[in-house]
């Protein structure tokens, strides 16, 4: 919904904004990169675990290694950030 609201604003409104990159822009970009990296790592760890389970390398019911040992859903945490 917020994306629709921003896209509904006229382009001339955005041309009046300052073009300089501020500290909040840098912090936002770092937060995005960190969260996206967290999500990708968690998804890769889960994919590897599922493949190992299919080949019967373990009989774990739940993933308890890597980021998954710290949080029940680290991939969603990364997506939210």
Mind explaining what this structure looks like?
The chain has 81 residues and is an all-alpha fold. It has helices at 2-7, 11-15, 23-54, 74-80. Helix 3 (23-54) runs antiparallel to helix 4. It is elongated, with a radius of gyration of 19 Å. The mean pLDDT is 83.
A few lines on this structure:
The protein has 81 residues and is mainly alpha-helical. Helix content is 62%, strand content 0%. The two termini are 17 Å apart.
- Termini distance? 17 Å
Helix content percent band? 55-70%
Q: Kindly provide the radius of gyration, computed on alpha-carbon positions and rounded to a whole number of angstroms.
A: 19 Å
Q: How many strands appear in the DSSP assignment?
A: 0
Cα shape: elongated
Strand content: under 5%
Q: Which structural class should the secondary elements be placed in? A: mainly alpha
Helical segment count? 4
What are the salient characteristics of this protein?
mainly alpha
Write the layout of secondary structure elements.
Elements: H1 2-7, H2 11-15, H3 23-54, H4 74-80
Helix pairs in contact: 3-4
């Amino acid at each position: 919904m917020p994306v629709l609201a921003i896209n509904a604003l006229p382009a001339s409104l955005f041309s009046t904004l300052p073009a300089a990159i501020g500290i909040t822009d840098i912090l936002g970009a770092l937060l995005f990169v960190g969260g996206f990296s967290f999500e990708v790592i968690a998804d890769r760890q889960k994919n590897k675990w599922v493949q190992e389970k299919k080949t019967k390398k373990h009989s774990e019911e739940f993933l308890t290694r890597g980021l998954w040992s710290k949080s029940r859903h680290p991939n969603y945490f990364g997506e939210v950030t």
